[in-house]
Fold:
Amino acid sequence: MNDYHFKLGKFQGHFVWHKHPDTDETFLVLEGEMMIVFRDGKVILKAGEMFVVPKGVEHKPFAERECKIMLVEPAGTINTGDAGGDMTVEDDVWI
Amino acid sequence: MNDYHFKLGKFQGHFVWHKHPDTDETFLVLEGEMMIVFRDGKVILKAGEMFVVPKGVEHKPFAERECKIMLVEPAGTINTGDAGGDMTVEDDVWI
Structure:
């Protein structure tokens, strides 16, 4: 919508530590359960729960079992933020 | 997130015809079922389904039974868009 994208994804295991210097990032869990680890705490999100990670805050998503999520963020936001690396995926892949 | 709000709401019956001249508007149905009527068609949304109404497109939400939804739209977006009237509610009420 407008210049924002809704991105569907699934992941399992440890994601990389990263931050998005220019934008907040919203996680909505569709199936399963995930954790977002911060340098000073963590949140656990179950299906139907949502969390907004503030701009610039380092975080590391983790899911013990496969978890399906929807992200809401500005078009062009890269999944690994400032971290890069093997887990970076191409932005703007439509399904 | 950023300058966008996630708004939780419930409604039943016919909403007013309106449009949002300056923004798209995203509907996500949380519980129940709703219809968005357009001048040239309609969509039916069930729980877990999402639809983006493009900027400037006239639409009229309708729910036969109470329906719980989440809206995603820029902060300050008024529920009745350009229509006004009795169904207009105050923006920016946090829960």
